Predict the 3D structure of the following.
Amino acid sequence: MKFGVVVSEGPYTHQASDTAYHFVVSALEAGHEVPRVFFYHDGVNVGTRLSVPPQDERNIQEQWTALAKEHEIDLVICIAAAQRRGMLDENEASRQGKDANNIADGFRISGLGQLIEMGIQTDRLMTFGD
Amino acid sequence: MKFGVVVSEGPYTHQASDTAYHFVVSALEAGHEVPRVFFYHDGVNVGTRLSVPPQDERNIQEQWTALAKEHEIDLVICIAAAQRRGMLDENEASRQGKDANNIADGFRISGLGQLIEMGIQTDRLMTFGD
Amino acid sequence: MSTLHTVNKSPFTNQSLLSCIAHAKAGDAVLMIEDGVYGAPAGTAVADALAARAGEVSIYVLGPDLAARGLDAGRILDGVNAVDYAGFVDLAAKHDRAVAWL
Amino acid sequence: MSTLHTVNKSPFTNQSLLSCIAHAKAGDAVLMIEDGVYGAPAGTAVADALAARAGEVSIYVLGPDLAARGLDAGRILDGVNAVDYAGFVDLAAKHDRAVAWL
Amino acid sequence: MSEDVKKFLYLNRKAPYGTIYALEALEVVLIGAAFDQDVSLAFLDDGVFQLTKGQDTKEIGVKNFSPTFRALGDYEVTKLYVEKESLDERGLSADDLQEIMYEDEDDDWAEKPSIHIVSRAEMADLIADQDVVLSF
Amino acid sequence: MSEDVKKFLYLNRKAPYGTIYALEALEVVLIGAAFDQDVSLAFLDDGVFQLTKGQDTKEIGVKNFSPTFRALGDYEVTKLYVEKESLDERGLSADDLQEIMYEDEDDDWAEKPSIHIVSRAEMADLIADQDVVLSF
């Protein structure tokens, strides 16, 4: 079965991104597919490569990046939500005249259409938020 | 009278940073002092210079930067909360081996001691959060 | 010695307003801000709980947040007074401490 | 055709669990996760509301979240079953849609 | 209805302005309208506050997005369900909500109301009839 | 007590792990302890869940910070007030909470409990007695 996953809250601040991660790991272990995870609202903050969590805590961004690489999951950060919250990739930074970008490896920025498409193309849509 | 102000939620996501801004503006207009605003929890995200809000919305970071400049308000972002959430200044970025930083003009990163000090040195502590 | 309590959550979703008024003391003030202003109108499922304390505790609501949400100031509970941001500052200055019921 | 409902907020603070069980239909499942697991123990102020629907609606709680919060699995309401993350996935696959009561 | 069309429900349970969920939900609805799915919007619990008329956000300095609901008909989003029990608890009636109309192309472009007041039981039936539920 | 010492109260009303507020509140308490103020911690509403014993976060992959409460005595943070009504509503009693002790330097280092179960009225009095209240 194909699962689509939405993550709506920021890392560490809310448990949503952790629960989503454990859900996706278990779904893949059970033989299901997770073609895409869509990060919306404060969920876009999961994709920053600038976070430095304490050494005895999990690194949420690195967990997602590694999982996506291993299982070819498309990690999409919503562009409209990202712009408000200061999440930019190299292209966006240059287009907006900003002098830095902060998107981590394995994440890409795209539009809300990717969320709707995920809802159409998967069998179940799971939302993790607040 | 001296007011200390804590902002605990991120910009746009929650109204807390807006309400805090209007409170500080009104306090200054009434002749009170606001020596420091302390950004904690997701409040640290107020200080990113990479946000690009829609043109018909307020720019929360720029509002704070301008107000701080005009009234010499010390805008402090908590370092521990900032590290988890990927908010870094140039020093921190270099110390942590990160290739970019994102703190806006007028904000500085410092420790939680600045919050306690603000509580000791002001007459009223106001908290805006969720 | 008295306290200004602020509540910023809808009382239909969150228990903060009820907890706040259960802990406020006679002579304190409660100010509803942000989504907390939904507690102000008369005729709701939470109005009685608030009205029951409106004698010994002064109840205020932030006018700009009321207007934003389309709540008619004419429909708020008797004894609840609207203030603007300057009035919010005055309340904070007048009471000895501020407690946010987040 | 049935629904998996998820609730992730403490029922002592937030109305989501009550709204969820008021909208769940016979044959649906409700899974409490994250801070939602505080709804699972017996003997609380919200236990009766949940127990009243535990016959026609299947009630589950996420075991890892229970353990994190120090809630003894032996004290949860009769008729509420604990699942792990794999069980969560199975519930999502088995029902026709998932609804998150955020 | 073609097999490629799914029933999408936007579940709105939060008040506007205090948090951004209501605004960002509306942004999804507008983008989603281009995908020609069978779209409904549900407003229950504090979500019913999104539709109140007379919203004036000038003094809080935040953009008033409530007029956008009146434009939904132009995007062929014409089914807005509002729960009566949620209105009642909040001291609201249908008269306190904005009038939101659409032109029915199947009925000689007659103007019709987009908002339908439904009972809690009908809301439960609506949820149970969906393929995809997006929660805000 | 010197005039430079203020009464600081940390107001804890949220459960642990679902959100970060409880953990980040504790981080403030630890740093704040160095400032030699008169510090109290209040646990009410869902905040009482922070102190439950037997927390095991291994499976959710999040750090268990509950042992840190037992170290507060070493930081001279020795006044933890827990509201009885909040415990009751949640089906909890004092026995469900961690034992948190400190050594009283004014009483020949006798071991004493840091947790005091108080009524709602006493909690209201405690709040009304503070100079600075930090809310989490």
